[in-house]
Specification:
CATH architecture of the largest domain: 3-Layer(aba) Sandwich
CATH topology of the largest domain: NADH Oxidase
Largest sheet: 7 strands, antiparallel
Amino acid sequence: MLIYLTRRKILKKITNYLMAFLLMPFFSIKKAMARNGDGTNGRMERQMNLPKPRFKGEVSVEHAIKHRRTIRSYLSKPLTLEQLSQIFWAAQGITEDRGYKRSAPSGGALYPMDIYSVVGDDGVKGLKAGIYHYDSQKHSALLITEGDFREDVARTALSQMWMARAPLNLVITAEYSRITSKYGSRGERYAMIEAGHVGQNIFLQVEALGLRAGIVGSFHDSDVARIMKISKSHEPLLILPVGYAE
């Protein structure tokens, strides 16, 4: 009788371990949807690898600087995935073969910036409309949520609806804690300076690609974050509509 009970306990333990092992992926996914590492709620990210960026172009830096302009009228022509990849890389891509240094300078190389893209319907060939987050380390785009949110974002920017006519809008955000941990309150200024570097990189890269960009700094920060479902710690600083000029 004692041996029989012992066997039952062992079999019960084995069964419980097997059930826990089989159900683990389900609970992991559920937990990921409920609470992501960056503090956002109710979203599930899907990663897409981007084409490798090019390091040699046909347009000189001098030409791009001379012809750069802020544009507010766009064609409905979509961008290619290669163009989006190149723009992401110019904004915050890794520029060391075996390192972590990025395309724009950053105080203490702490990199408090994150780049998001609001892609419209038929905004980028082969890409669903939605909100994407650029992963510098993997050079990939994470789909945060599907849908065309260009008009919603434009309304947060004092209803500057010209923004919604661009195939995509790039949103530069800062997570201040990454840099204030070293520099204190002065770090917020450094982050804003860095946002300017990133914005200029985007302007020059789109010019080199035969595209044009605009720039917007007037918007309701919390509304942009809410619509895009981004972390509350990622404060939007600049929005850059990108596309082909009319």
